[in-house]
């Protein structure tokens, strides 16, 4: 049985919709009564799913964990473009959605597979001259963003209910799934935005069996501590 003072490692959390990654960090700090807590790979408030929380000495391997590939399941809606590229934004453009065939949709997804450059959205935490882009966006400003080299390892159309498309994508670190939806909509000529998103995997870590936010809030500290993966366990899982 793990000691309640032994809190070095990684905690897998299933983030709920409508909260920030920092909210989850704050809840974890209270649940464990420890200040040394971080997270790997920000999830937008719209998104749910796997958020890797580092605790104690686990924070020292945060960058290593963040560098791993991610898997997401999401839904994009064609015909509507928003200022944030997702459903939390304001619709800025609408277009009629043609009756695309599955082959046409698949061709658009194929266009964004492999290695390519992706321009980050204005509503993001990337900084321009020390100022986060989302703060500039709130002021109505649009600045030039440096395209980033990204990779899509695999993608799959899981449901076609036009104007909505359910999909799965496996991608590299730093990939914006809402920009992926925006770009596919642009390629199809009718625009699109991300309706929902769930991170299912990060590296070899999976959301299956992760601690829910409700459990973090209500379960005894000893139970949450018992769910922390030790640093040796994390090393074995990563194949390091």
Q: Which regions contain 5 or more consecutive residues with pLDDT less than 50? A: 1-5
Structural class: alpha+beta
> Number of helical runs?
8
Task: Name the CATH architecture of the largest domain.
Answer: 2-Layer Sandwich
CATH class of the largest domain: Alpha Beta
The third-level CATH topology of the largest domain is Pseudouridine synthase
Q: How is the biggest beta sheet arranged?
A: 10 strands, mixed
Q: Tell me what portion of residues adopts beta-strand conformation.
A: 25-35%
Give your account of this protein's structure.
With 240 residues, the chain is an alpha+beta fold. The chain folds into two domains: 9-67 and 204-238, Pseudouridine synthase (2-Layer Sandwich), CATH 3.30.2350; 70-121 and 147-201, 2-Layer Sandwich (Pseudouridine synthase), CATH 3.30.2350.10. The protein is built from eight helices and 14 strands. Strands 1, 2, 3, 4, 7, 10, 11, 12, 13 and 14 form a ten-stranded mixed beta sheet that branches. A hairpin with a 2-residue loop joins strand 8 and strand 9.
Summarize the helices and strands and which ones pair or pack:
Blueprint: E1 9-15, H1 21-32, E2 37-40, E3 48-55, H2 62-66, E4 70-78, E5 80-82, E6 91-94, H3 102-111, E7 114-118, E8 127-128, E9 131-132, H4 133-138, E10 148-161, E11 164-171, H5 177-188, E12 192-202, E13 205-206, E14 211-212, H6 213-218, H7 221-226, H8 231-238
Parallel strand pairs: 1-14, 3-12
Antiparallel strand pairs: 1-3, 2-3, 4-11, 4-12, 5-6, 7-10, 8-9, 10-11, 12-13
